[in-house]
Amino acid sequence: MKLDVISLDNTKAGSVDLDDAIFGVDVRADLLARAVNWQLAKRRAGTHAVKGRSDVSGGGKKPFRQKGTGSARQGTSRAPQMRGGGVVFGPTPRSYEHKLPKKVRKLALKTALSSKQAAGKLVVLDKAELALPKTKDLTAKLAALGWGSALVIDGAEVNKNFALAAGNIVGLDVLPSQGANVYDILRHDTLVLTQDAVAKLQERLK
Known about the structure:
Ribosomal Protein L4, Chain: A, 6-stranded mixed β-sheet, alpha/beta, 2 domains, elongated
């Protein structure tokens, strides 16, 4: 399929051929959900912890005598049923990461790209470059283009001036082509690919 290429000045700068096997696959919500869950699980710290009865200090002495108090017998004040005691089956530090087959990850990324193309939210930019790292200049260009929440994916490397200018703009993120991922694509309204990014992604996903 063919798609128009525009510049940052919102003028047409030619056209580009998109591979239907990458940008025209059927959108599968189940694959997108699996990929997003996999990404979010990987970033979880898993450092949560509570103290069990063996971790709580004290409790070495029997709190009161066995018989004659009218209360239930207790062997330690650090038992779970006692005030200040340990926690039963509480969370312990662990990794939430799980495996997702490479083929599934690859197909999920294709699906994410295709979903943006099908929704008319895919834009191809000739190049994401600025002469000066001025946020004000980039903000004016984005306003003219009508991009609110946008993810810009460049080639192997991101233009330094463009990255610096975009750093303070809320809703705008910039990634190199190697960093393209399902979660970031889906959480932005508009997906902007440079011509270099299109070439890199088609080479990576073919």
